[in-house]
Amino acid sequence: MLGVAVYLIAFLFLLGLLPAFVARQKGHSFLLWWLYGAVLFIVALPHAMVLRPRNVAEMADGKSCPYCEELVPQEDEICPFCHLHLYDPALDGPAIGHSMTHRHA
Ligand SMILES: [Zn+2]
User: Fold this and answer.
1) How far is the CA of 85 from the centre of ligand 1 (A)?
2) Angle (nearest 5°) at CA 44 between 38 and 49
3) Domain shared by 6 and 53, yes or no
4) How far is the CA of 102 from the centre of ligand 1 (A)?
5) pLDDT, greater one: 100 or 86
6) Does pLDDT of 50 surpass 70?
7) Which DSSP helix (H) or strand (E) runs through 25?
8) Is 105 part of any domain?
9) pLDDT of residue 96
10) Per-chain mean pLDDT for the chain
């Protein structure tokens, strides 16, 4: 009976490698996801699949400069790349930004 349990646990840890590899490719902790996958494989695998890569998750906190299209932190009001004043696209609308794209400062 004990032998079956050992095989079952070994099997679960092998299964857990799958979501661990998927999560590691997206910049997450391999070890944590391995344990997560071993304990909750049914949940962990689809969870790892829908994980957003770390750099994309960080990018979601920023905004892109309407002038040079570089990514700048959400709280910045002056673009660190082209040093132009940024507006909030949600407030000003994309049409204004587009018409100003080629304006020389
Ligand atoms: Zn810029």
Assistant:
1) 8
2) 135
3) yes
4) 12
5) 86
6) yes
7) helix 2-25
8) no
9) 47
10) 81
Residues 75 and 53 in one domain: no
Q: How far is the CA of 92 from the centre of ligand 1 (A)?
A: 16
Cα dist from 13 to 1, 23, 82, whole Å:
19, 15, 50
What local confidence, expressed as pLDDT, does residue 90 receive?
60
Alpha carbon of 64 to ligand 1 centroid (Å): 8
Radius of gyration of the chain (CA): 23
Distance 86 CA to ligand 1 centre (A): 8
End-to-end CA distance of the chain: 77
Residue type, 96: I
Q: In the block, which residue shows the tokens 């040093």?
A: 83
Contacts 24+ apart (CB under 8 A), 86-94: 89/63
For position 77, what pLDDT does the model report?
A: 85
Measure 17 CA to ligand 1 centroid, in angstroms: 42
Strand boundaries in 34-94, DSSP class E: 62-64, 71-73
Distance of CA 27 from the midpoint of ligand 1 (Å) = 28
Domain that holds residue 39: 2-57
